[in-house]
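Record 1 of the preview.
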Amino acid sequence: MKCPDCGSNMEKRYGKFGKFWACVSYPECDCCISTKPNRTPANKELRQLRKQAHEAFDVIWRSGMMGRSEAYVWLGNKMGLPRHETHIGLFDKRKCAYSIEICHKYMANDFRTW
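->
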């Protein structure tokens, strides 16, 4: 696997949270990826955006307004994405920002009409 940021190889490493793939150019390049499915490599900035996207998204399904799977279908529909592409671990910066905006609007408005 090649690092999308610098083009170097990625290698499997072990950390306090388990296995992950990291760029061999670390610390100059901090791109890494979990070994979980439905993830793409991310640098620190993208990882932070994904965390913010999850925080905004998780409020919706954890509140009981809809189930988690249903919330992902809803988010995908709002973003114009097929279900298999609607996973925050796959999002780039633009999709993260858009998902945060959608989730915040949903929570700020009368969500029943959304």
